[in-house]
């Protein structure tokens, strides 16, 4: 199999490549990534130089380059590339529409032109909007995105669906809950809290801290995408989630306890506009129809994650020293 992976230098894409390149030594993987602030080839140093893996720098909105590469014949596209951070989408929505909507359409068009046999579109539970105190998102829940990020992902999901309905493109859409684990950019909740707590900096928590997310260890997401790539029924959507609903404040308190740091570091900040209250995933379809099962529960996953950030401080400190600091100060005020 030849697989064209987009966004493979980001958090989930790099975990996916590390998982797949070792698991399938006879497959060929091309990692196509433009390397935005969130892309980091350092994540992939373990597979650099391995013969079934190659990196190509490029933008998914670049029609000529995408066509040129896909014309060489690929069995599958696994599409991770996106602008992925909700807070940034509030500051700068344009790039989210360009990359997430137009970039996805460009890939779909090229996949159609060159007869790609499977297009796996990696999406998010955020396209469903916000839940009340009860109920879960199923694949039939209507899309009701509330942030420019989730709206742009919903737009891309609908284009993927349309390319299946109109042109018969063999697609799957996966909608996963919040991921955590190694190589997550330190603007996202869990690595942000770990890094700031270790440096005894204040820990910004939105609103009352009671927003609920369902958390999945990234490797479990990768195993689900692997299954969908091989076994997914064309045209189907698969929800992926860990049955690990936690409030944001619970996450922060758990990390502080694990690190032996005081709760006085917590600082409640003005809530994010349009902040979804609760996400919860019903993953019955992928578990019963494809036999997927996550290996980690939240307690084991968070300990493994904290250990990784403790053992790899150079990785996130290098990131924090650049453009990221400017963004952080703009978002939460400098300290
Ligand atoms: P990330 O921001 O860490 O990585 C995104 C990657 O895409 C980066 O390597 C970046 O350089 C690349 N990229 C961005 N724009 C590009 C472009 N125009 N052309 C080529 N490459 C480009 O994101 P992530 O957290 O790894 O998320 C990956 C995918 O999974 C996204 O589609 C996201 O919507 C989805 N998702 C994420 C989560 C989560 O919790 N992180 C949950 C569910 C779904």
Automatic annotation (TrEMBL):
Residues 4-305 form the NAD(P)-binding domain. Pfam families: GDP_Man_Dehyd. Keywords: Lyase, NAD. Signal peptide: none annotated. One of its GO terms (molecular function) is dTDP-glucose 4,6-dehydratase activity. It catalyses: dTDP-alpha-D-glucose = dTDP-4-dehydro-6-deoxy-alpha-D-glucose + H2O. Its EC number is 4.2.1.46. Gene3D superfamilies: NAD(P)-binding Rossmann-like Domain, UDP-galactose 4-epimerase, domain 1. The keyword NAD applies. Its cofactor is NAD(+). PANTHER family: DTDP-D-GLUCOSE 4,6-DEHYDRATASE-RELATED (PTHR43000). Belongs to the NAD(P)-dependent epimerase/dehydratase family. dTDP-glucose dehydratase subfamily. This is dTDP-glucose 4,6-dehydratase. It comes from Paenibacillus hexagrammi. The gene is rfbB.
């Amino acid at each position: 199999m030849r697989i064209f992976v987009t966004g493979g230098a980001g958090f989930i894409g790099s975990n996916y490549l590390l998982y797949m390149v070792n698991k399938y030594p006879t497959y060929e993987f091309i990692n196509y990534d433009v390397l935005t602030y969130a892309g980091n080839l350092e994540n992939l140093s373990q597979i650099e130089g391995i013969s079934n893996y190659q990196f190509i720098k490029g933008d998914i909105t670049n029609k000529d380059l995408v066509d040129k590469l896909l014309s060489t014949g690929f069995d599958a596209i696994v599409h991770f590339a996106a602008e992925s951070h909700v807070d940034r989408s509030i500051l700068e929505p344009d790039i989210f529409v360009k990359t997430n909507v137009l970039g996805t359409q460009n890939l779909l068009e090229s996949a159609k032109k060159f007869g790609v046999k499977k297009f796996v579109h990696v999406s998010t539970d955020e396209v469903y909007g916000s839940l009340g105190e009860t109920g879960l998102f199923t694949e039939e829940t209507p899309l009701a995105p509330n942030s420019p990020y989730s709206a742009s992902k919903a737009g891309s999901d609908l284009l993927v669906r349309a390319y299946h309905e109109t042109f018969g493109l063999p697609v799957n859409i996966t909608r996963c809950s919040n991921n955590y684990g190694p190589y997550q950019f330190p603007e996202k909740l869990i690595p942000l809290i770990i890094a700031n707590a270790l440096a005894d900096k204040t820990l910004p928590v939105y609103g009352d801290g009671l927003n609920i997310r369902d958390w999945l260890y990234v490797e479990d997401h990768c195993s689900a995408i692997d299954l969908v790539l091989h076994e997914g029924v064309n045209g189907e959507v698969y929800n992926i989630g860990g049955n690990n609903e936690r409030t944001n404040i619970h996450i922060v308190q758990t990390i502080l306890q694990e690190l032996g740091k005081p709760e006085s570091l917590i600082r409640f900040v003005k809530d994010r506009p349009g902040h979804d209250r609760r996400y919860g995933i019903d993953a019955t379809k992928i578990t019963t129809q494809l036999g997927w099962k996550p290996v980690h529960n939240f307690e084991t996953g968070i300990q493994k994650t904290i250990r990784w950030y403790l053992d790899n401080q150079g990785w996130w400190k290098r990131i924090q020293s650049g453009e990221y600091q400017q963004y952080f100060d703009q978002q939460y005020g400098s300290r």
